[in-house]
Amino acid sequence: MNYRHAFHAGNFADVVKHLALIAGLGHLRRKEAGFAVVDTHGGRGAYDLAATEAARTGEAAEGIGRLTDVKGGPAALTTYRELAGGAVYPGSPLIAAKLLRPQDRLVAVEMHPEDAAALRQTLRPYAKARVEEGDGYKRLVALVPPPERRGLILIDPPYEAPDEFRFAAQAVAAAYRRFATGIYLVWFPIKSASEANSFCGEVLACGAAKVLRIDVEKRGVAEGKLAAAGLAVINPPWQFDDEMRAALDIVLPCLDCLARFDWLAGKD
Ligand SMILES: C[S@@+](CC[C@H](N)C(=O)[O-])C[C@H]1O[C@@H](n2cnc3c(N)ncnc32)[C@H](O)[C@@H]1O
Protein backbone atom coordinates (compact mmCIF):
# COMPACT_ATOMS: atom_id res chain seq x y z
CA MET A 1 0.00 0.00 0.00
CA ASN A 2 2.32 2.71 -1.21
CA TYR A 3 -0.28 4.81 -2.98
CA ARG A 4 -0.95 8.19 -1.38
CA HIS A 5 -3.74 10.23 -2.91
CA ALA A 6 -2.21 13.47 -1.59
CA PHE A 7 0.12 13.46 -4.61
CA HIS A 8 -2.81 13.32 -7.04
CA ALA A 9 -5.71 15.08 -5.28
CA GLY A 10 -7.38 17.66 -7.50
CA ASN A 11 -5.85 16.41 -10.72
CA PHE A 12 -7.84 16.19 -13.96
CA ALA A 13 -9.08 12.70 -13.13
CA ASP A 14 -10.27 13.80 -9.68
CA VAL A 15 -12.13 16.73 -11.24
CA VAL A 16 -14.12 14.44 -13.54
CA LYS A 17 -14.67 11.74 -10.89
CA HIS A 18 -15.86 14.27 -8.32
CA LEU A 19 -18.17 15.99 -10.81
CA ALA A 20 -19.74 12.59 -11.53
CA LEU A 21 -20.08 11.92 -7.80
CA ILE A 22 -21.86 15.24 -7.31
CA ALA A 23 -24.12 14.65 -10.34
CA GLY A 24 -25.10 11.22 -8.98
CA LEU A 25 -25.76 12.57 -5.49
CA GLY A 26 -27.72 15.49 -6.96
CA HIS A 27 -30.08 12.99 -8.53
CA LEU A 28 -30.52 11.06 -5.26
CA ARG A 29 -31.19 14.32 -3.38
CA ARG A 30 -34.11 15.12 -5.67
CA LYS A 31 -36.33 12.62 -3.81
CA GLU A 32 -37.20 13.02 -0.15
CA ALA A 33 -36.37 9.40 0.75
CA GLY A 34 -32.95 8.89 2.33
CA PHE A 35 -30.02 7.27 0.55
CA ALA A 36 -26.72 5.62 1.45
CA VAL A 37 -23.29 6.29 -0.02
CA VAL A 38 -20.56 3.66 0.16
CA ASP A 39 -17.08 4.92 -0.70
CA THR A 40 -14.93 1.78 -0.82
CA HIS A 41 -11.55 3.54 -1.08
CA GLY A 42 -11.96 6.76 0.85
CA GLY A 43 -8.46 8.22 1.17
CA ARG A 44 -7.86 10.99 3.73
CA GLY A 45 -10.89 13.05 2.73
CA ALA A 46 -9.09 16.42 2.63
CA TYR A 47 -5.86 17.50 0.95
CA ASP A 48 -3.86 20.66 1.54
CA LEU A 49 -2.93 21.80 -1.95
CA ALA A 50 -0.06 23.91 -0.55
CA ALA A 51 1.55 20.81 1.01
CA THR A 52 4.72 19.28 -0.42
CA GLU A 53 2.93 16.27 -1.94
CA ALA A 54 0.69 18.40 -4.18
CA ALA A 55 3.51 20.84 -4.93
CA ARG A 56 5.89 18.03 -5.86
CA THR A 57 3.69 16.59 -8.62
CA GLY A 58 1.96 19.81 -9.68
CA GLU A 59 -1.09 17.70 -10.60
CA ALA A 60 -3.59 19.84 -8.71
CA ALA A 61 -2.24 22.96 -10.39
CA GLU A 62 -2.92 21.24 -13.73
CA GLY A 63 -6.38 20.18 -12.55
CA ILE A 64 -8.53 22.12 -10.10
CA GLY A 65 -5.96 24.95 -10.24
CA ARG A 66 -7.02 25.65 -13.82
CA LEU A 67 -10.67 26.12 -12.93
CA THR A 68 -10.45 29.32 -10.90
CA ASP A 69 -12.22 31.42 -13.57
CA VAL A 70 -14.94 28.87 -14.35
CA LYS A 71 -18.43 30.18 -13.67
CA GLY A 72 -21.97 28.93 -14.27
CA GLY A 73 -22.76 25.63 -15.94
CA PRO A 74 -24.97 22.83 -14.68
CA ALA A 75 -25.73 22.31 -10.99
CA ALA A 76 -23.04 19.63 -10.55
CA LEU A 77 -20.37 22.06 -11.73
CA THR A 78 -21.49 24.98 -9.56
CA THR A 79 -21.65 22.68 -6.53
CA TYR A 80 -18.19 21.31 -7.33
CA ARG A 81 -16.77 24.82 -7.60
CA GLU A 82 -18.33 25.74 -4.26
CA LEU A 83 -16.97 22.64 -2.52
CA ALA A 84 -13.56 22.54 -4.18
CA GLY A 85 -12.74 26.20 -4.49
CA GLY A 86 -10.45 26.54 -1.46
CA ALA A 87 -6.88 25.70 -0.45
CA VAL A 88 -7.98 22.35 0.98
CA TYR A 89 -9.20 20.01 -1.72
CA PRO A 90 -12.10 17.76 -0.63
CA GLY A 91 -11.78 14.06 -1.37
CA SER A 92 -14.79 11.97 -2.31
CA PRO A 93 -15.92 11.16 1.27
CA LEU A 94 -15.87 14.83 2.28
CA ILE A 95 -17.76 15.83 -0.86
CA ALA A 96 -20.38 13.15 -0.13
CA ALA A 97 -20.55 14.09 3.58
CA LYS A 98 -21.20 17.73 2.71
CA LEU A 99 -24.09 16.71 0.44
CA LEU A 100 -25.84 14.41 2.91
CA ARG A 101 -29.20 15.46 4.29
CA PRO A 102 -30.31 14.33 7.78
CA GLN A 103 -32.00 11.26 6.28
CA ASP A 104 -28.89 10.18 4.28
CA ARG A 105 -25.67 8.50 5.37
CA LEU A 106 -22.16 7.69 4.22
CA VAL A 107 -19.86 4.79 4.95
CA ALA A 108 -16.31 5.41 3.78
CA VAL A 109 -13.79 2.56 3.93
CA GLU A 110 -10.03 3.10 3.97
CA MET A 111 -7.43 0.40 4.43
CA HIS A 112 -4.35 2.47 5.31
CA PRO A 113 -4.45 3.05 9.09
CA GLU A 114 -2.96 6.54 8.92
CA ASP A 115 -5.31 7.66 6.16
CA ALA A 116 -8.29 6.05 7.90
CA ALA A 117 -7.43 8.04 11.06
CA ALA A 118 -7.09 11.25 9.03
CA LEU A 119 -10.40 10.52 7.31
CA ARG A 120 -12.10 9.94 10.64
CA GLN A 121 -10.83 13.35 11.76
CA THR A 122 -12.01 15.02 8.54
CA LEU A 123 -15.49 13.54 8.82
CA ARG A 124 -15.88 14.14 12.56
CA PRO A 125 -18.27 17.11 12.08
CA TYR A 126 -20.63 15.02 9.94
CA ALA A 127 -22.91 12.94 12.16
CA LYS A 128 -24.23 10.85 9.28
CA ALA A 129 -20.77 9.89 7.97
CA ARG A 130 -18.95 6.82 9.30
CA VAL A 131 -15.41 5.60 8.58
CA GLU A 132 -14.41 1.96 8.58
CA GLU A 133 -10.77 0.94 8.51
CA GLY A 134 -10.51 -2.16 6.36
CA ASP A 135 -10.72 -3.67 2.90
CA GLY A 136 -13.25 -1.76 0.84
CA TYR A 137 -13.98 -4.71 -1.44
CA LYS A 138 -14.87 -7.00 1.45
CA ARG A 139 -16.83 -4.35 3.30
CA LEU A 140 -18.82 -3.40 0.20
CA VAL A 141 -20.47 -6.80 -0.05
CA ALA A 142 -21.48 -6.57 3.61
CA LEU A 143 -22.81 -3.02 3.22
CA VAL A 144 -25.20 -3.64 0.32
CA PRO A 145 -28.06 -3.59 -0.17
CA PRO A 146 -28.48 -0.60 2.11
CA PRO A 147 -31.74 -0.65 4.08
CA GLU A 148 -32.66 2.60 2.30
CA ARG A 149 -32.63 0.71 -1.04
CA ARG A 150 -31.33 3.90 -2.66
CA GLY A 151 -27.68 4.60 -2.91
CA LEU A 152 -24.45 5.36 -4.67
CA ILE A 153 -21.33 3.22 -4.56
CA LEU A 154 -17.96 4.76 -5.42
CA ILE A 155 -15.18 2.29 -6.19
CA ASP A 156 -11.92 4.20 -6.56
CA PRO A 157 -8.95 1.89 -5.94
CA PRO A 158 -5.30 2.86 -6.39
CA TYR A 159 -4.68 0.10 -8.99
CA GLU A 160 -1.15 -0.46 -7.69
CA ALA A 161 -1.55 -4.24 -7.41
CA PRO A 162 -1.38 -6.14 -10.71
CA ASP A 163 -4.69 -7.92 -10.01
CA GLU A 164 -6.55 -4.80 -8.86
CA PHE A 165 -8.65 -4.67 -12.06
CA ARG A 166 -9.82 -8.21 -11.33
CA PHE A 167 -10.61 -7.39 -7.68
CA ALA A 168 -12.57 -4.29 -8.70
CA ALA A 169 -14.60 -6.15 -11.34
CA GLN A 170 -15.33 -8.99 -8.90
CA ALA A 171 -16.44 -6.49 -6.26
CA VAL A 172 -18.78 -4.82 -8.76
CA ALA A 173 -20.30 -8.18 -9.71
CA ALA A 174 -20.77 -9.27 -6.10
CA ALA A 175 -22.26 -5.93 -5.04
CA TYR A 176 -24.50 -5.67 -8.11
CA ARG A 177 -25.95 -9.14 -7.42
CA ARG A 178 -27.06 -7.86 -4.03
CA PHE A 179 -28.00 -4.30 -4.99
CA ALA A 180 -28.94 -4.08 -8.65
CA THR A 181 -30.64 -0.67 -8.42
CA GLY A 182 -27.70 1.23 -6.96
CA ILE A 183 -25.72 3.84 -8.87
CA TYR A 184 -22.12 2.63 -9.20
CA LEU A 185 -19.19 4.85 -10.14
CA VAL A 186 -16.14 2.74 -10.91
CA TRP A 187 -12.98 4.70 -11.60
CA PHE A 188 -10.07 3.22 -13.57
CA PRO A 189 -6.77 4.47 -14.99
CA ILE A 190 -6.18 4.03 -18.72
CA LYS A 191 -2.58 3.02 -19.24
CA SER A 192 -3.43 0.62 -22.03
CA ALA A 193 -6.59 0.69 -24.16
CA SER A 194 -6.88 -3.10 -24.20
CA GLU A 195 -6.58 -3.37 -20.42
CA ALA A 196 -9.25 -0.66 -19.94
CA ASN A 197 -11.54 -2.25 -22.53
CA SER A 198 -11.29 -5.69 -21.00
CA PHE A 199 -11.93 -4.22 -17.54
CA CYS A 200 -15.08 -2.50 -18.84
CA GLY A 201 -16.12 -5.83 -20.40
CA GLU A 202 -15.77 -7.47 -16.98
CA VAL A 203 -17.78 -4.69 -15.33
CA LEU A 204 -20.47 -5.08 -17.99
CA ALA A 205 -20.61 -8.81 -17.26
CA CYS A 206 -22.37 -8.00 -13.97
CA GLY A 207 -25.47 -7.89 -16.16
CA ALA A 208 -26.46 -4.24 -15.66
CA ALA A 209 -28.87 -2.94 -18.29
CA LYS A 210 -27.43 0.58 -18.32
CA VAL A 211 -23.71 1.26 -18.23
CA LEU A 212 -22.10 4.51 -19.37
CA ARG A 213 -18.36 4.82 -19.87
CA ILE A 214 -16.71 8.24 -19.73
CA ASP A 215 -13.04 8.42 -20.73
CA VAL A 216 -10.97 11.55 -20.27
CA GLU A 217 -7.56 12.15 -21.78
CA LYS A 218 -5.20 14.99 -20.92
CA ARG A 219 -2.87 16.38 -23.55
CA GLY A 220 0.77 17.20 -22.94
CA VAL A 221 1.25 14.99 -19.90
CA ALA A 222 4.86 14.10 -19.10
CA GLU A 223 5.87 10.53 -19.85
CA GLY A 224 5.26 8.15 -16.97
CA LYS A 225 2.37 10.22 -15.58
CA LEU A 226 -1.29 9.31 -15.86
CA ALA A 227 -2.70 10.82 -19.05
CA ALA A 228 -6.10 9.13 -19.27
CA ALA A 229 -8.72 7.73 -16.94
CA GLY A 230 -12.22 6.36 -17.18
CA LEU A 231 -15.40 5.99 -15.20
CA ALA A 232 -17.81 3.12 -15.65
CA VAL A 233 -21.19 4.32 -14.43
CA ILE A 234 -23.70 1.59 -13.72
CA ASN A 235 -27.34 2.75 -13.58
CA PRO A 236 -26.54 6.36 -14.44
CA PRO A 237 -29.57 8.41 -13.39
CA TRP A 238 -31.83 10.12 -15.88
CA GLN A 239 -29.99 12.96 -17.69
CA PHE A 240 -26.73 12.18 -15.84
CA ASP A 241 -24.93 12.03 -19.19
CA ASP A 242 -26.38 15.40 -20.30
CA GLU A 243 -25.28 17.02 -17.05
CA MET A 244 -21.79 15.52 -17.30
CA ARG A 245 -21.47 16.58 -20.94
CA ALA A 246 -22.54 20.14 -20.09
CA ALA A 247 -20.07 20.30 -17.18
CA LEU A 248 -17.22 18.78 -19.17
CA ASP A 249 -17.86 21.09 -22.14
CA ILE A 250 -16.92 23.96 -19.81
CA VAL A 251 -14.18 22.27 -17.79
CA LEU A 252 -12.24 20.19 -20.30
CA PRO A 253 -10.89 23.06 -22.44
CA CYS A 254 -9.42 24.58 -19.23
CA LEU A 255 -7.81 21.25 -18.35
CA ASP A 256 -6.58 20.62 -21.89
CA CYS A 257 -8.54 17.37 -21.86
CA LEU A 258 -10.81 15.52 -24.24
CA ALA A 259 -13.66 13.23 -23.22
CA ARG A 260 -15.47 10.38 -24.83
CA PHE A 261 -18.89 9.05 -23.79
CA ASP A 262 -19.87 5.48 -24.68
CA TRP A 263 -23.00 3.64 -23.68
CA LEU A 264 -21.74 0.12 -23.03
CA ALA A 265 -25.31 -0.98 -22.31
CA GLY A 266 -28.68 0.75 -22.62
CA LYS A 267 -29.27 4.45 -23.10
CA ASP A 268 -31.65 7.07 -21.71
C1 LIG B 1 -7.48 6.76 -5.27
S1 LIG B 1 -7.39 6.84 -3.54
C2 LIG B 1 -9.03 7.27 -3.07
C3 LIG B 1 -9.40 8.68 -3.35
C4 LIG B 1 -10.79 9.06 -2.92
N1 LIG B 1 -11.78 8.12 -3.38
C5 LIG B 1 -11.14 10.44 -3.44
O1 LIG B 1 -11.72 10.56 -4.54
O2 LIG B 1 -10.85 11.41 -2.74
C6 LIG B 1 -7.33 5.14 -3.09
C7 LIG B 1 -7.28 4.89 -1.57
O3 LIG B 1 -7.56 3.51 -1.35
C8 LIG B 1 -6.81 3.07 -0.24
N2 LIG B 1 -6.79 1.59 -0.34
C9 LIG B 1 -5.95 0.76 -0.99
N3 LIG B 1 -6.40 -0.51 -0.97
C10 LIG B 1 -7.59 -0.49 -0.31
C11 LIG B 1 -8.57 -1.47 0.01
N4 LIG B 1 -8.45 -2.75 -0.38
N5 LIG B 1 -9.66 -1.09 0.70
C12 LIG B 1 -9.83 0.21 1.10
N6 LIG B 1 -8.94 1.19 0.82
C13 LIG B 1 -7.84 0.85 0.12
C14 LIG B 1 -5.49 3.77 -0.38
O4 LIG B 1 -4.82 3.83 0.87
C15 LIG B 1 -5.94 5.14 -0.91
O5 LIG B 1 -6.13 6.04 0.16
Helical percent range?
25-40%
CATH superfamily: Vaccinia Virus protein VP39
The CATH level-2 architecture is identified as: 3-Layer(aba) Sandwich
**Ligands bound, unique:** S-adenosylmethionine
Sum up the overall morphology in one term. globular
Kindly report the spatial arrangement of strands forming the biggest sheet. 5-4-1-6-7-9-8-10
Strand residues, percent: 15-25%
Instruction: Count the domains.
Output: 1
**Structural class by sheet pairing and helices:** alpha/beta
Task: Count every helix, treating DSSP H or I runs of 4 or more residues as helices.
Answer: 9
Mean pLDDT: 96
> What is the CATH topology assignment?
Rossmann fold
Rg to the nearest angstrom? 17 Å
Q: What's the helix-strand series? A: HEEHHEHEHEHEHEHEEHE
Multimeric organization: single chain
Pick out the low-confidence regions: none
The profile of the biggest β sheet is: 8 strands, mixed
Protein name: Ribosomal RNA large subunit methyltransferase J
EC number: 2.1.1.266
Organism: Rhizomicrobium electricum
Keywords: Methyltransferase, RNA-binding, rRNA processing, S-adenosyl-L-methionine, Transferase
